[in-house]
Amino acid sequence: MPVNALYRDDFYLSTCEAVVTAVHEDGGIELDQTCFYATSGGQPGDTGELERADGTRIALGQTKHGASKDIVIHVPLETEPRPDVGETLVLHVDWQRRYRLMRMHTACHLLSVVCSYPITGAAVGEEESRVDFDMSETIDKDAVTAKLMELVAENHPVYLQWITDEELAANPDIVKSKNVRPPIGLGRVSLVCIGENSSIDSQPCGGTHVSETQEVGQIHIAKIEKKGKENRRFRIRFGTPGDEA
């Protein structure tokens, strides 16, 4: 059944109470609401724990979507017990992991500002993220890093604006990605805006992000790889280039 995905409106919500609405044969759990982000758009789903009334906890290995984007399935590790339908649980997101993914995902958006080419692919990770661009030009990774860190240091606000599916369809040019479909089908689409009045960037995205660029912290371009005649893969990592050793 459709879930109230609380994370869509509050990226910093790491715990909430929810009622079990379904338990699948493979152990997957559906809830009436959740603060767990489900795998989508290149960002991994959350992990964490579901706390039962007696204090015991069910460890989750992943969170994913069901047959549609309004269904979220919480998948326990194989050895974990199954809750009962109607049971009330307290959800606990692995916040340290989520926050790193939020910082990384925001860094990917900043990279798309520095490198204003169509995006052909992306994957957000805890230690390293990658963004692929449709480009043939040679570009210096240290110069890109310097521009990224300028945007981080300027501490621009990062926030959401909501538009309807119809508004997005009427303005297709705001989509930077060539291959990844924006998060449509729920009636509204979230635009991730960077800078006052979207002065730095505005992009449809259903992922989680920090609230200001300074939270991204020290990042750098570790490598730029040639993936075909007109495709370049940028690898973003936390820390400074000297951390590579």
TrEMBL record:
Cellular localisation: Cytoplasm
GO molecular function, one term: hydrolase activity
Domain (Alanyl-transfer RNA synthetases family profile) ranges: 1-245
Primary location: cytoplasm
Keywords carried by this UniProt record: Hydrolase, Metal-binding, Zinc
Cofactor(s) required, per the database record: Zn(2+)
InterPro entries: Ala-tRNA-synth_IIc_core, Ala-tRNA-synth_IIc_N, Alanyl-tRNA_Editing_Enzymes, Thr/Ala-tRNA-synth_IIc_edit, Transl_B-barrel_sf, tRNA_SAD
SMART domains: tRNA_SAD
Protein name (database record): Alanine--tRNA ligase
Species assigned in the record: Rhizobium hidalgonense
